């Protein structure tokens, strides 16, 4: 039984998989994302600019990357999360983004899309835990009815943090994921 827990675009992908091929998942945990089209906040462009600066500077160490990201983000937990997207280039040993920044910049306008528009046409009936950061705007109360139509066995678990739930509050997230296991009999 697969349980899929993911953030950002990965959450939209996981929800899409659940709706298209529900037998592939035993449970779903979208993190601070909803099955609706949403506008991305300006932070994402800013973060990509920071990541591009890291690539252009040819940094080789996480500490050097962190120094650059400090210009774009104050929170250490968010910077650490952003740096999980970096990898070393084998030939030069410098850090680069796993997905080219140019590709991401060109795709920013579409990242908030969701392929299903009508929640009455398809549903995922497995256990679903929507984890949301209470200081984030991505899973607002007004989208809960839509969530319930796509995912009728959903639970909402609120965590006192911003959008980067797992980075900001890892223990609270772990407890929330455990709540899904206890609320629904999962093996």
Show the helix and strand layout.
Elements: E1 3-7, H1 8-20, E2 27-31, H2 43-57, H3 62-69, H4 76-83, E3 86-88, E4 95-97, H5 101-107, E5 128-133, H6 144-150, E6 154-159, H7 165-168, H8 170-183
Helix pairs in contact: 2-3, 2-5
Describe the structure.
Helix content is 41%, strand content 15%. Helix 6 links the parallel strand 5 and strand 6. It has helices spanning 8-20, 43-57, 62-69, 76-83, 101-107, 144-150, 165-168, 170-183; strands spanning 3-7, 27-31, 86-88, 95-97, 128-133, 154-159. It contains eight helices and six strands. The longest helix has 15 residues, at 43-57. The chain has a four-stranded parallel β-sheet. The chain is globular, with a radius of gyration of 18 Å. With 187 residues, the chain is α/β, with parallel strands linked by helices. Helix 2 runs antiparallel to helix 5 (101-107). The model is unreliable at 1-6 (pLDDT under 50).
């Amino acid at each position: 039984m697969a349980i899929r827990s993911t953030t950002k675009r990965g959450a939209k992908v996981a929800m899409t998989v659940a709706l298209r091929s529900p037998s592939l998942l035993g449970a779903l945990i979208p993190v601070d994302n909803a099955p609706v089209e949403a506008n991305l906040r300006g932070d994402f462009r800013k973060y990509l600019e920071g990541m591009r600066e890291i690539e252009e500077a040819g940094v080789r160490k996480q500490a050097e990357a962190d120094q650059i990201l400090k210009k774009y983000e104050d929170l250490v937990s968010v910077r650490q999360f952003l740096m999980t997207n970096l990898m070393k280039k084998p030939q030069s040993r410098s850090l680069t983004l796993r997905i080219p920044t140019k590709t991401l910049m060109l795709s920013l306008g579409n990242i908030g899309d969701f392929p299903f528009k009508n929640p009455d046409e398809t549903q995922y009936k497995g256990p679903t835990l929507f984890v949301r950061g209470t200081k984030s705007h991505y899973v607002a109360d007004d989208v809960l009815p839509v969530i319930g139509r796509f995912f009728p066995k959903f639970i909402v678990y609120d965590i006192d943090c911003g959008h980067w739930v797992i980075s900001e509050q890892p223990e609270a997230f772990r407890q929330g994921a455990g709540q899904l296991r206890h609320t629904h009999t999962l093996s």
